[in-house]
Amino acid sequence: MEQVVRYDPDLITMSSTEDMWELEVTLLESIESYIEEKKVPIIIGGVFPTFAPEICLGHRLISMVCVGEGENTLLELCRCIEEGISYNDVTNTWVKQKDGSVRRNPISKPVDINNMPLINMSLFDLARLYRLMAGRIYKMFPVETH
After folding, report:
1. Among 14, 15, 43, 95, which is least packed, fewest CB within 10 Å?
2. Cβ within 8 Å of residue 112, ≥6 positions away
3. CA-CA distance, 6 to 90, in Å (whole number)?
4. What is the Cα–Cα distance from 62 to 133, expressed in whole angstroms?
5. What is the DSSP-derived secondary structure letter of residue 119?
């Protein structure tokens, strides 16, 4: 809670897998008073929300779900929040409305990974990149694509 108050976010984003869902809910609930007082929107994306958006939006603190890729979605969402305009139409989102209904926006074109910046490998401890596989040690970096 101290870190959230110090940072004072305009938006809280989370990426979730099925096995991390309960932990993320616990984290959100631990800052529930802050979320409600400041009316901070919460968006959750990742594998689990993409395949189970209804479950995620069923939680009282989740404002919206990113379905599919989030790179352009987050840029557009942040622009809307910064300009103080509605984010109800942001592509790749399902947005919970005040009456409890859900606005399901269309999916945008996939992101062209050739236009994405290269990963700065210096951010990672090199020991983190070595993995044991089939009795041998390999230097690896996990990357998700569809």
Report:
1. 15
2. none
3. 28
4. 38
5. P
Q: Is 63 exposed, middle or buried (0-12, 13-18, 19+ CB in 10 A)?
A: buried
Handedness of CA 113, 116, 122, 128 (dihedral sign): negative
Mark residue 8 as left, alpha or beta (left: phi above 0; alpha: psi -120 to 50; beta: remaining): left
Per-residue pLDDT tens for 33-68? 999 999 999 999 999 999 999 999 999 999 999 999
**Judging by DSSP bridges, how do beta strands 130-133 and 12-15 pair with one another?**
unpaired
Q: Cα 41–57–16 angle (5° rounding)?
A: 80
Structure tokens at 82: 């910064």
Sign of the dihedral defined by the CA atoms of residues 15, 28, 101, 95, in that order: negative
Predicted TM-score (pTM) above 0.70:
yes
Domains of the chain by range and CATH? 2-104 (3.40.50)
